[in-house]
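Changelog-adjacent note: as of this version, every example in the card shows the full chain rather than a window. The one below runs 127 residues end to end.
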Amino acid sequence: MARQLQAAPKQDSDNESLVRVFFRGFFWPARFIGRGLAWIGHRPPLKQIGHAIRWFFRLKPVRFLGRITGLRFVGSSWQELKFVTWPTKREGTRLTSAVIIFAVIFAAIMAGVDYGLDKAFKQILLK
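Full-length structure tokens:
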């Protein structure tokens, strides 16, 4: 039996329009950001990363460079962060919503005052 040679199927890239190619390239960085956020959401090995960072910063040359460049401030700030009592997820959500509500109310008040002063000055100055 003789084999029949088939024509190679056309690639999808041959049929794509310039608009589709542009938007595929335009949203390319967003795909990588989404993948990174997905990786963070799946519990990265923070304990192992922390151990590696701790080991690195305990090396004598690194400690010496830290003393020269004034990185003691960063280390003391990190130590201070260990004493912070972080809010729970519920408290964080509640406090964040309170800040957003306050910002919206304050923006509405400022917009009202701006509109009122605008009308008042136009009445006074343009007469």
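Structural remarks: Residues 86-127 form one domain.
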